[in-house]
Write a structure and sequence with these properties.
Length: 119
């Protein structure tokens, strides 16, 4: 077996409008049109896609105090300070990477953890 590329990640959200604001407006991801048989939205990030799927509840159990040690999505960013300021401007929590590298974590409105790493 040879896996050659990651195509997408699907995450659960409870409020599509609130999540679209976070991913589309706050993070600035490009929404793409998709014909769905269920409530949700898809975003394009380079050759990769992020799928938001509406669910009645979302598991929010993150057992580790350090967010990077919990399940998360990671994005590469050009300027980590800009990301940090934008998240703070919109009142989203942030946590610096415990490893000391140029990375930080936030949580979307449903508690899904997202990493931003400056390469």
């Amino acid at each position: 077996m040879q896996i050659t590329q990651s195509l997408h990640t699907a995450i659960l959200v409870t409020d599509l409008e609130r999540s679209e604001h976070f991913y589309g407006t706050v993070l600035g991801l490009s929404k793409i049109d998709r014909s769905l048989n269920y409530a949700g939205a898809w975003y394009q990030v380079g050759d990769y896609q992020l799928h938001l799927i509406v669910a009645p509840t979302v598991p929010t159990e993150n057992p580790n105090e350090k967010w990077g040690r919990n399940p998360h999505i990671a994005f590469s960013v050009a300027d980590l300070d800009t990301v940090k300021q934008e998240l703070l401007n919109h009142n989203y929590p942030i946590q610096a990477s415990a490893s000391g590298r140029a990375a930080l974590f936030t949580q979307d409105p449903d508690g899904n953890i997202i990493e931003f790493s400056q390469q």
